[in-house]
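pasting for the record
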Amino acid sequence: MAGNGIANGALVALLAVQVSALAGGAARAQGTVPSAVPVQRSAQGPALGPASEPAAPPTASSPGPAPAEPVTRAGYFYIGGRYQKLGDKTVMVGQMFVQSRTPARITQPYPVVMVHGLAQTGVNYLATADGRPGWVQHFVEKGYQVYVVDQVGRGRSGTNPEVYGPYERLGTRSLERTHTAPEVYDLYPQAKLHTRWPGGPGVQGNVGFDQFFASQVPFLANTQQTEELVDPALLALLEKIGPAILLTHGQASLFGWAASDARPDLVKAHVAVEPSGPPFFDVQFRGGKEFWEKSGDGRARAYGLTRMPLTFDPPVKAPEDLVVAQDAKGMESKGSDAKGSEPKAGDGRIRCWLQGEPARALPNLAKVPTVLVTAEASFHATYDACTAAFLTQAGAKPDVIALSDRGLRGNGHMMMLETNSDAVADVLAEWLAGRVK
């Protein structure tokens, strides 16, 4: 596929060894990346020795070839992981696959870490379902070093029901209804606006959808366990590579909030593309005038944004300490965009669950520049404003970007795979340019 971050063809020799992420300052130093990797590095970073013998210097009679143009360098490594005895064999658990792409010349001060959502893998960012270069290539071309992960227990990180327990997977209809062809099912008011899936509605038989569905993988049935596994692995990655920008999609926002809360010094910005929500409870869509309802009585995210504890002020000793109150009507926005727009009520929005007043603050999240990005035709258009309102109520005050306000119409939840994916990436890069110092 075009844009694939794992090198192939002429670059396959560069993957003969498992390379590290060029940790720390050296990874982000300005300058040209050489066309050959001079040393082999372990997953921990230190040099292990020469990767090959240096070529003999050219002589006057044999000047040798002209210097090659610098090339993008690709690599991968695993972060975290520990050995565990399983019956009569020893296995590894908790490891997370990390793929790296380094531009010929790094011009941005911090790398971007891209984290995928539910049922997906990092392949979402490598290329589009119809074969165009993906967000990895787009950000590399803008001078960013990019890291793409597969969640622990999924995809290239390795699946293991013996260790992690039961798995689930999504069927075609689940993805069609909300991700790729919402206009066909019309389960929420914005659904009919969807126009951006390649080749028409993304249903079974559409070539782009078939490619997308082929990429789907089983995921852990235990949602809290997923956070318990991915949170420490993502923190370990940040501690290895140094300060970075987190770009999360859907479910991955759970890990982005946790990392921003635990290490705001290492998260230079959090781009939350349609973050998991709304706060506290899940909702399901059924169409019609009363198009949504709460899924179950229990809190889906005990701490509002996450299932795992966050740092509140005053402190929260147990989830029950957070009093939940529901808005009288749906809100269009309670965050702020570059123009500082005011909130207003709007149709097609759910009634938000927020903290009861006086609300507790989230001081660590308030330290991290954050933007919530929402597509016009996505099911997230019904409730991302609730996530913005929750953060604002807690003092975090995120920026909000509605793609339709930037002239990008018709997008759904999988905007990185849709026909204007590059234009969406440009919006994210523009925000980073203005907010990351």
